[in-house]
Amino acid sequence: MKLPALNNKSERPAELNRREFFKSGAAVASVTLAPGVTLMAFGGEASANADPGKRWGMLIDVNKCSADCNACVTACSEENGWKLDGNPETDPQWIRKIDLKHKETGREASLPMMCQHCEEPPCVDVCPTGASFKRVDGIVLVDKHICIGCRYCMMACPFKARSFVHEAVEDQKSNAPRGKGTVESCTLCVHRVDKGGTPACVESCSATGNGAMMFGDLNDPNSEIAQALKNYPSMGLRDDLRVNPGIRYTNL
Amino acid sequence: MMRLVATLLVLIGLSTGAAMAESTYPDIPKAVGAPHPEGNDYMRINHMRLMRHDRDLTVHEGDRSIKYSIKECVACHAVMGPDALPISVQEDGHFCRACHEYAAVKIDCFQCHNSKPEDGFIDLLKQTPPATDDEIQAYLDGMSQ
Amino acid sequence: MDRTVYREVKPTPAIWLMAAIAAAFVGAAGLAVLYIEHHGHIVTGMNNQIVWGLPHVFAIFLIVAASGALNVASIASVFGKIENKPMARYSGLLSIALLAGGLAVLVLDLGRPDRLIVAMTTYNFTSIFAWNVILYNGFFAVVGAYLFVQMARNISPKVVRSVGTAAFVWRLALTTGTGSIFGWLVARPGYDAAIMAPLFIIMSFSFGLAFFILVLGTTFPMTGRYIGPNLVKRLGRLLGVFAVAVLYFTAIRHLTNLYAAEHADFEYFILFSGSIYTKLFWIGQVLIGGVIPAAMLLRHAENTTKGQVILASVLIIIGGFAHLYGIIIGGQAFPLEIFPMYEVTSTFADGQINSYTPTIYEWALGMGGVALAVMIAGMGVVALRILPMNLSDRNIDPTEPDF
């Protein structure tokens, strides 16, 4: 049901109904208000629900990752509102850089490590309340509304992806609510992905020029990532566990 | 005789109660946006139920266009402090605290959610005017059709 | 056999003193919980590397002992050994008390203990933890029913036997579930093993009986009731067998792990590296908790005294604590092997051995759980007719010579 008084931009060119404004984000679009229908409107595509046909994943090229670059970690912490406070044992780390040296060959490498968004996540299996869950599009998340803070998922994760929030949090990012007593981990920037964007770490890695991280839909045969995975060797970490991670590494 | 006394007592009690209630009734800060079409009383009773339902849509299904998003509640109901910045739930005068302290119901949301709107919103709050009465009426008319 | 007379314990000053001390510990635990809940887990020694700490060691220990404490009753009701019948009520009460103490510690250490209702109403049934919530709560119900049918009049022995069997089966499921919390974690070399569930079952036999003997051996003299030395000897022999069984399962677990190259680093860390876990294993678990008590109880078993059996029980409890500390904390201290064959460093403690120092708050919480168990058991024997007046050998087995 369209209500011309509210939406007619010719009447109020530079002003906006405040409520409409919030929903529209950066771009302004006309909004249809009808009973039961949301006021949301987006500049680009309509807000997408999690799509079961998609499987979001990443490909990380270890050769392109430089040992003294921390762009992905910085970007993630700014996007999601966590930070390293000088207490490395209790500070949360959604993503971290790992420096490797092969015991036999001496080869050195560096790579970013975050939640691997497994297809068969051990953390989802063990969560007693079901707060740790996998979305239909493959993103593994913690529903912090029902997390009781038992930390069993932290015991179960083979990749040490999860952190516990050890103290009260203030000034959270509105896109990444996080609080004391619950468990958290990389969300694959689900708030960005749901609006058609890419995770902050991938974006920042491209911005540095290294371009070690690629993000996309693993199920779409025409996507850049699917093509890369098809044509070049890659591996998932701890492939022997058969959890089938959505994050894959090449040149490791 | 006793019934008369009883009625008198009840009336005294009610008026005292009313008087007391009036003086302790929370001073609810005005919101900055259009009023809820459902009505304030409805929202007072049902806001948690509505948020709980919609939050599951967002968290589990990725629906970011839900109607009852706490992000928007916080933005529209932001209360400005003396420095013209929104105040957090830690301070007296925060919108949610006004009623929740009166009703003695602990707020769990702001352990994880920010009780202030994000920076970008504040400037925009200042720029955009509130809806006029005509607009509100038109919206409500539209709702009822 | 004389008819066993059960009577409430009269609270003497000594018992009041014990109650007061236990209450003080419970109070301290309560304060510790409030402090931890207010400030967050940053005030504890637990962190992102050692995720489960001392409270969990206490909790699992109490839970395992709880299921084992029921053994004495099960031997009577399920396996028909009538000599255990007089102790069956106390066995049931003690198992409820220990479980309550353990669960209290476990639940109060949650990051969000205010969400306990969520834990009890929302279940993810692929999680053994979720099953455990049901098993633990059901245990109270089943053992409660078992106590009831034992204590109520005019209940046929067949009913007691059925309920007793149900309690026995339930407690096996519960202990299997507790062991599987660790056994079903594929991520860590210290846990991922099928033997965890049976190991926990046999640990429950050993620790539960040790607790039972210890508590019996202290409450009976305190209340002026007599225990016959043969009874103590018999329980002592059984305890010795259980201690050896625990050693056996431990040996199998480590030998199997040692055989696999992928677990060699972990086994070296636990068994030979000289870390705290090495000391806890060899001195705490094997020597104090296994070899010494087994020798005391099984060598010249016919000459074991009451004192020796009680001492052996204490040693087994100490060793059991060391055992669980080694399993729970040791399994987390060793870093995850995400990149086999690589040396690994990061800002998130990858590749390094993690250390853990429990704070006073964790000790307070853990000991509060033990104190809670003591209080519940104490309140039970004072309020209800749980303790038999007389456990003399003559009373239990008329063919025994009178001591």
Description:
The complex is a heterotrimer of chains A (252), B (145) and C (403). With 252 residues, chain A is an alpha+beta fold. Chain A has helices spanning 4-7, 18-24, 71-80, 122-126, 152-156, 190-193, 200-208, 224-231, and strands at residues 56-61, 95-102, 108-114, 132-134, 140-142, 163-164, 183-184, 213-217, 247-250. Chain A contains eight helices and nine strands. The longest helix of chain A has 10 residues, at 71-80. Chain A starts with a helix and ends with a strand. Chain B contains six helices and no strands. By secondary structure, chain C is mainly alpha-helical. Chain C has helices spanning 13-39, 54-69, 71-77, 88-108, 116-121, 128-151, 157-183, 196-222, 229-259, 264-271, 276-298, 306-333, 360-383, 393-396, and strands at 226-227, 342-346, 390-391. The longest helix of chain C is centred in the middle third of the chain and has 31 residues, at 229-259. Chain C is globular and about 70 Å long. Chain C starts with 12 loop residues before the first helix and ends in a 7-residue tail after the last helix. The mean pLDDT of chain C is 93. The chains are: A alpha+beta (252), B mainly alpha (145), C mainly alpha (403). Strand 2 (95-102) of chain A pairs antiparallel with strand 2 (342-346) of chain C, so a sheet runs across the interface.
User: How much of the polypeptide of chain A forms β-strand, as a percent range?
Assistant: 15-25%
Number of strands of chain C: 3
Please trace the helix and strand order of chain C, writing H or E for each element.
HHHHHHHHEHHHHEHEH
Radius of gyration of chain C: 22 Å
The gross shape of chain A turns out to be globular
Strand content of chain C: under 5%
Set down the secondary structure blueprint.
The complex is a heterotrimer of chains A (252), B (145) and C (403).
Chain A lengths: L3 H4 L10 H7 L31 E6 L9 H10 L14 E8 L5 E7 L7 H5 L5 E3 L5 E3 L9 H5 L6 E2 L18 E2 L5 H4 L6 H9 L4 E5 L6 H8 L15 E4 L2
Parallel strand pairs in A: 1-9
Antiparallel strand pairs in A: 1-8, 2-3, 4-5, 6-7
Helix pairs in contact in A: 3-7
Chain B lengths: L1 H23 L15 H22 L8 H7 L18 H9 L15 H9 L5 H12 L1
Chain C lengths: L12 H27 L14 H16 L1 H7 L10 H21 L7 H6 L6 H24 L5 H27 L12 H27 L3 E2 L1 H31 L4 H8 L4 H23 L7 H28 L8 E5 L13 H24 L6 E2 L1 H4 L7
Parallel strand pairs in C: 1-3
